[in-house]
Design goal:
The structure is a homodimer of 409-residue chains. Chain A has 409 residues and is α/β, with parallel strands linked by helices. The first copy, chain A, folds into 2 domains: 4-281, L-amino peptidase D-ALA esterase/amidase (4-Layer Sandwich), CATH 3.60.70; 289-405, Ubiquitin-like (UB roll) (Roll). Helix content of chain A is 33%, strand content 29%. The first copy, chain A, has 11 helices and 18 strands. Chain A has helices at residues 60-71, 91-108, 130-142, 148-157, 210-222, 258-281, 300-311, 314-321, 327-336, 366-372, 400-405; strands spanning 4-7, 18-23, 37-52, 75-85, 116-123, 166-174, 177-186, 199-204, 207-208, 228-229, 239-244, 251-252, 289-297, 347-350, 353-357, 360-361, 377-383, 389-396. In chain A, strands 1, 2, 3, 4, 5, 6, 7, 8 and 11 form a 9-stranded mixed beta sheet that branches. A 7-stranded mixed beta sheet of chain A has the order 10-18-13-17-14-15-16, sandwiched between helices. In chain A, helix 1 crosses helix 2 (91-108). The longest helix of chain A is centred in the middle third of the chain and has 24 residues, at 258-281. The first copy, chain A, is globular, with a radius of gyration of 22 Å. Chains A and B meet through helix 8, helix 9, strand 16 and helix 11 of A and helix 8, helix 9, strand 16 and helix 11 of B.
Chain lengths: 409, 409
């Protein structure tokens, strides 16, 4: 019973019971033909769960979606998402606009009382051009389909500064029935834990109630979206939604067989992890993806603090960009995480080559580190030798291109 | 009774009772003629106090200096400082080398039992070239002088990526006697709170015991060096030392007249603040110095968290570089500080021009913000309207030049 995993799949159209539609309605007001609005619609109201940004400043669609998921007890018809405008810091008008997007979507699919989750991403502080959005929702609804090509258009419609769509599918068989988990995501800037400027939509055809979905999604997100960092900026709009159509007929709940539960969780985990990896790999103008592994911590929170201090250090990230194995900056950042590490016990490795063992530098290995940091992906590993806890963060470098790209919008 | 304040003074040679000497001994091994070693020597053992990096990974000279300040009860002969090599992450050999620097300095001034504070700044993880350092200490000792020109050489000798020396002097009269407080500092990269990669040496000719000096220095540092940020990286070597020669004959202690205590504290505060400001203004490849003021917080710690989240946000700093008044990124960073701010109460100002009032954007002021952010220095002010606490951080922008400068050492 193995999981079949597909990178760069069509995404949600791989999952029976869902249709998607995407269109371009010029939300950025640039007279472009760029796709910027997507609908994900279940054939019938379906179970849903979400995890959201923990930013104090939440965009209107985040507030709206959190509320409707509670009041609908996690039973929704689908998701409406746009790029180009975050509908964040838009005061009460923003709240009305988010609600309006949900209502227009429900009407467009012919069920005005159905509930839609709403997601927006893009610039903060500007009102949505609602007449354009309304037209876009109508067009997207008219295109709803389960064709792979429309799946790819939806994956494209939510992108902002991303350079490519991000999709993944996992499938497995259970007692002769096929269960699918698939999704698509966007990232690029403001990527940090506890979400990042990222949206991810994942669907399955298993029969799962909202509470179980939520537990499953939370667990997967903690090991994936919450373990990546591009620039350390957490957004106002981060949202991950998991929908379950139930059309496979395979029931998942606390009482299900352990093997089934394990397979399902593994499928959700792998889709989330693949999407998170694609988000880091497509971070704004990055050239490196570095796994920061911290081992031997007294507790996981200490290991995480150190990994994030390293992964978010401008000096460390600049040296990765320069392919300079500057382990001194790793030690410095690990130290200012202030977890009480003991320098005399600290080991630092590039991949499997030691740079520091028990606080003592091994400069004789310098040429080997230099070779390792030339690769697009490598691992830096710190062992604190203080306990058994660990954390792994996937981080990017910082480039002159990032700074120039973000100078102005 | 006013304080006379001098920017870009000769520094410590302005203070009676001290001599300084500086030389270049090629610590960076580049056959350059750059100054890289400085001695500050009191005519007699003098009272001293220090504040140091709170990084878990402390450089050998930091560990050494903390220990000798304790064991000597704050009575030292002076300071020996070098640039070009941080003597950090250098294991037990680093400890021996730091101690050796102190011993060589004491011998060089003819008092082998006197105590020296030791400070180093530069690259982490390499052993000091001790024969060069020994020669440098001998040469610097031979040059000891209270001439302004040698003061300026000392201020230059501790620089790393700084582009200019940083000095300041404050003086006041008390009952006909002149009291001086003066110092010099270095900064440039790894500049963040709780010190930064910075060294600062300040001296006075007041008669002050070590404990009072420590209180005075701690208070000044909290309002100056701990309120600046260039890149959010805290170093392994940060050190601020305050020395008191006592030759003015004016005694400062808890029992002194309130006016005298106030004047002295103000002099120390102003010297520290001026040096901290110069550090930010000379941050690596920066083009902007931005005061981030957070008002109306429930407690100072909340205001500080928000100010630091803003001042260290890559997206915010990039937009400052681009002269883009992107207040949405300010709101976003304020939110992810997660202090429980209420977006509906939030005001954001550029200098005195509102961008957001009570959560509502004022796009009609956009041209005025755009004008403000073109200046080299401006203020962003957030009022949370939740209480009376506040914090002010002096931060810099992030430039493509910073990234390229720090790609490799």
């Amino acid at each position: 019973m193995a999981i079949e995993f597909i990178h760069d799949s069509p995404g949600i159209t791989d999952v029976p019971g869902f249709r998607v539609g995407a269109t371009g309605c010029d939300i950025r007001n640039k007279n472009g033909d760029r796709l910027d609005l997507a609908l994900i619609v279940a054939d019938q109201p379906c179970a849903a769960a979400g995890v959201f940004t923990t930013n104090d400043v939440k965009a209107a669609p985040v507030r709206y979606s959190q509320t409707v998921l509670l009041s609908s007890r996690g039973l929704v018809r689908g998701v409406v998402a746009n790029s180009g405008n975050a509908n964040a810091c838009t005061s009460t008008q923003g709240d009305s606009d988010a609600q309006k997007m949900a209502e227009l979507s429900a009407k467009a699919v012919g069920s005005p009382h159905d509930i839609f989750v709403v997601c927006s991403t893009g610039r903060i502080g500007e009102l949505l051009p609602m007449s354009k959005v309304a037209a876009g929702i109508a067009t997207a609804a008219a295109r709803l389909s389960n064709q792979a090509s429309e799946g790819m258009r939806a994956a494209e419609a939510i992108l902002t500064s991303d350079t490519r769509p991000k999709t993944a599918t996992a499938r497995f068989l259970w007692q002769g029935k096929k269960i699918s988990v698939a999704g698509f995501a966007k990232g690029a800037g403001m990527i940090e834990p506890n979400m990042a400027t990222m949206l991810a939509f994942i669907a399955t055809d298993a029969v799962v109630e909202s509470a179980y979905l939520k537990t499953s999604l939370k667990s997967a997100a903690d090991q994936s979206f919450n373990c990546v960092s591009v620039d350390g900026d957490m957004s106002t709009n981060d949202t991950v939604i998991l929908l379950a159509s139930g059309v496979s007929g395979v029931v998942l709940n606390e009482s299900s067989e352990a093997t089934l539960k394990k397979l399902f969780q593994e499928a959700v985990d792998r889709v989330c992890f693949a999407l998170a990896e694609k988000i880091v790999g497509d971070g704004e103008k990055i050239t490196k993806v570095v796994a920061v592994e911290v081992l031997g911590a007294r507790q996981r929170a200490d290991a995480e603090k150190i990994a994030r201090a390293i992964g978010n250090s401008l000096l460390v990230k600049s040296s990765w960009f320069g392919e300079d194995p500057n382990w001194g900056r790793l030690a410095d950042a690990a130290g200012y995480a202030r977890t009480g590490l003991d320098e005399a016990k600290l080991d630092i490795y590039y991949n499997d080559v030691p740079a520091v063992v028990a606080g003592r530098p091994l400069p004789e290995n310098k040429l080997r580190w230099k070779e390792i940091v030339k690769a697009r992906q490598f691992t830096v590993r710190l062992n604190l030798h203080l306990g058994d806890a660990k954390f792994r963060l996937l981080a990017s470098d910082l480039t002159d291109g990032y700074v120039n790209y973000n100078k102005s919008e």
